[in-house]
Amino acid sequence: MRHIVEIQNRRWLGSDIFAIEFFLPEINPHPGQFFQIQVSDSLDPFLNRPISIASYNRGKCLLVIKVVGKGTAILSRKNVKEEIIIYGPLGKGIKKIENKKALLLAGGIGVAPLYFLAQQLYKYGIDFSFIYGAKRPQDLVLKSNIIKISPEAIFITEKGGKKKGTVISALREIDVSEYEVGYACGPKEMLKELKSLNLKFPVYAFCEDFLGCGCGLCLGCAIKYYGEYKRICEDGPVFDLKGIEFA
Does 219 score more than 70 pLDDT? Predict the structure, then answer.
């Protein structure tokens, strides 16, 4: 599961969000899975960085990354033709996509794994809607890509833009009776508020956290799920939102 890949493309999508692309033809990832990326040859930073897969098509892999610390800042300075070491794909993603009308709810950088899922829904002709929220209009990355494949897309920002609010406020404004399944990825507060709505259909949360080892050994990403502790990296990162017990 250790791969050395060469960066084929690197571009900025926003002021602090960038994308890198590389070829890795020997894998078959599922939406929700991620890579652990070695960001340095030294011990600083010591831990690898977990990054969700945003797209995979015929061996071409896209990662969308937000600069939040030293490790991701180092990654943002990598150049085309440079090699990086990655481990994965890791975690349990959505292996079987059900033919049910779906509602995708993305908050912030949580758009990355849901964009991968949206491509799969589009590929198999499954109807879905996409609600995507961010702080500012310039933070709505992959917007044009989503518009191309989503039958219905709603974009909302907390500051600026034509439609102001959050993913949850946008959700409250639509009729959800026609949906049969939901998928959500975003900040913990968004997921907690979403759970409190008690929607009539199952919602699967793509949980994101700081994953130390990425393979279930360090137990640093444990969450309580239906009364038992589960590891986001090994048992998830996709869980039924109903069963997550938020702290």
Answer: no
